Amino acid sequence: MKKIVVLMLCSLMATLAFGGGAQDGTGAKEEVYTLRLTTAVTADDPVTVHMQILADELEKKSNGRLKVSVFHSSQLGSTEDTQEQAKVGADIGFLSDPGRFSTIVPEMGIMAGPFLLDDIFQVNKIMETSAYKRWVKELDEKHGIVELSTNWFSGQRHFVTNQPVRTPDDLNGLRIRTMGAPIYIESINAMGGVGTAMPWSEAYQAIQQKVVDGLEAQFSAIDGSRLYEVAKYVSKTGHFHLLNGIAVGSKWFYKLPEDLQILLREEAARVGDMQVRDMVEKRKYYEQVLQENGMTIIEPDVDLFREATRKVYDKLGYKELYDEIRKEIESN
């Protein structure tokens, strides 16, 4: 808690430094707004790379009225830390996912559900639903978070272990690091593991020291964190499509002129589309890199894992919402 308070104070001090000024058409100085984009993944991850593209585009298209910098590898704190900083007014834009937001807007967890999507591009249909619009409105009005877009994609999640995993029985009793929201933990438990929440920054050491028996992650994160140094196997279950979004605090966002608010939303969505396509194109590349670094890629019977997770939607009260979302996804 002390760490979070210190980070909040530092962020608030930085937020006060709006100063400077860009020239408008009359020669008068316009206010300059700072924004720090942050993510837990490494510098060369496609998400971070596209965050930098977003930063550059925002500065360019705002004529310098937005000064944007990018911080990777949890340099500004964990996702939970940066979310709290943003809520109190810090100039932070953080990468988060619907599963994490489900701790404050429970229905949002459905977007992180196991085997919900057949392919990542179906997320655009979810974003058009009245349910999604209701969730982001609640995030803003009740929790002080503005979701600029939810169309970024970190990849499909797979199991990373030191023993082969081909069926749910092979996960029986294994402590598997995952993210801290109920949808993630219950899904891992349903597939046979013991869902264990911890920050991503601690995952490498946790496997190395056998605090956990494995984890679940996307290819780019497995490579970026060099998990091939401490784990032998990747089981390609693809149980989660890890959707992400760029979010900022409402207090900071509504201090912006309306044209900059519109620019932020449009560019976050546009660059998000670019990032998704880039990530999809690099799937085979990352798989090859992991194999070249000594990992064995296992092709399990995915239907067994899918069947094991069906009860998760009932357990978390998502059954009707699941049926509604799947109907929307399958519609033409």
Care to describe what's here?
The chain is an alpha/beta fold and 332 residues long. It has 14 helices and 13 strands. A hairpin with a 5-residue loop joins strand 1 (22-23) and strand 2. The longest helix has 24 residues, at 258-281. It is globular.
Helix content: 40-55%
Extended strand count? 13
Poorly predicted segments = 1-6, 12-22
Number of helices: 14
CATH fold descriptor of the largest domain: D-Maltodextrin-Binding Protein, domain 2
Q: Calculate the terminal CA-CA distance, rounded to whole Å.
A: 48 Å
CATH class of the largest domain: Alpha Beta
Secondary-structure arrangement, i.e. CATH architecture of the largest domain: 3-Layer(aba) Sandwich
How many domains, in number, for the residues?
2
Shape: globular
Task: Supply Rg.
Answer: 20 Å
The CATH superfamily of the largest domain is known as Bacterial extracellular solute-binding protein, family 7
Sheet with the most strands: spatial strand order: 9-8-10-7-11-13
Strand-residue proportion: 15-25%
Q: Main sheet?
A: 6 strands, mixed
The topology string of helices and strands comes to: HEEEHEHEHHHEEEHEHEHEEHHHEHH
Average predicted confidence as pLDDT: 91
Instruction: Please identify the structural class as seen in this structure.
Output: alpha/beta
